[in-house]
Write a structure and sequence with these properties.
It is globular, with a radius of gyration of 22 Å. It has a five-stranded antiparallel β-sheet with strand order 1-2-7-4-5. It is built from nine helices and nine strands. The chain has 295 residues and is α+β, with helices and mostly antiparallel strands. α1 packs across α4, α3 packs parallel to α5 and α4 runs antiparallel to α5.
Length: 295
């Protein structure tokens, strides 16, 4: 096939991926909005509600080590379509057939297994906590229009991604001040432990929030709720994604591009990837990286 040309099968595959992604996300997060209804209609205890809330993430974590290795043998896009198709079916089952705790448990678990399918490429930057509405990088204009906040700083965090053949996505730093008295709720989980890398990939940064930074009241928090006065501020650091594959397997071209874009520092290029980048842009490989490649 000539470069730039498409075939009907390729168009179908791209369309299927897009539709599958939309369907998967539509059902994944309606559960939280409907939880009060489930409390009443299914007579759930708080413990049961917590299990239903978390099982999707537990099933996801358990399925990843089994599903991801399949991408070495099967086109990752096809695995992704099948996995998200399973997630979509689980949402339909939740809507049409679930009538109690155990039904909900099964369908929520299937949704988590479907989430385990993934691509082998660099992680997406600027993703937020997966159980909130801002899973994508919501624009400053939207946030400042709807809330009493002003963004003083918004940027990707250098070296926040887990190193790997395919590095993780970068986290985001937000420095935010309040234009009026307000309440703040931090849902920053994973503030004490790090996400995992896979197949030799490295760990990323962790979630962190600093309230009242630069003052006597400065405090680092995870899950946290408080009231903020006009003019007070916080700094939020979202975690990066874990790396996939050994960092020494990453191509020189991609490493140099990451340094140029300030995704990684020169120190990370040397210590994590084994590439020494000089100020003039020239580069050389460390003895460890050369040894890894049998040179």
């Amino acid at each position: 096939m000539r470069p730039g040309t498409t075939t009907p099968s390729l168009v179908f595959l791209i369309g299927a991926v897009c539709v599958a992604q939309v369907l998967a996300q539509l059902g994944a997060f309606t559960f939280f909005a409907l939880l009060p209804t489930f409390f009443h209609e299914w007579s759930l205890s708080h413990s049961e509600a917590g299990v239903l809330n978390g099982i999707i993430f537990g099933a996801y974590a358990l399925s990843v080590p089994f599903i991801v290795p399949l991408t070495d043998r099967i086109d990752p896009r096809r695995i992704y379509v099948c996995a998200v198709g399973l997630t979509t079916c689980s949402h339909l089952g939740m809507a049409l057939f679930a009538d109690g705790f155990w039904d909900g448990f099964v369908f929520r678990a299937l949704a988590g297994i479907g989430w385990g399918g993934t691509y082998r490429h660099d992680g997406a930057n600027a993703l937020q906590h997966p159980s909130t509405s801002s899973i994508r990088n919501t624009s400053i204009e939207v946030l400042e229009h709807t809330c009493n906040v002003f963004h003083e700083r918004l940027e990707l965090i250098t070296d926040s991604a887990g190193p790997g053949k395919h590095r993780g996505g970068l986290g985001v730093r937000r420095d935010v001040s309040f234009s009026a008295d307000s309440e703040i709720i931090s849902q920053g989980k994973k503030s004490k432990t790090l996400a995992w890398g896979l197949k030799g990939g490295g760990e990323p940064s962790r979630n962190e929030m600093v309230v009242w930074p630069g003052t006597e009241k400065e405090k680092r928090v995870g899950m946290f709720r408080t009231f903020m006065k006009k003019g007070e501020s916080f700094a939020n650091f979202s975690a990066g994604g874990g790396g996939w594959g050994h960092p020494y397997e990453r191509t020189i071209k991609k490493i140099l591009a990451d340094v140029k874009n300030e995704y990684i520092s020169k120190n990370s290029a040397r210590d994590d990837y084994g590439v020494i980048v000089a100020d003039d842009g020239s580069w050389s490989e460390t003895a460890e990286r050369l040894s890894h490649h049998g040179k």
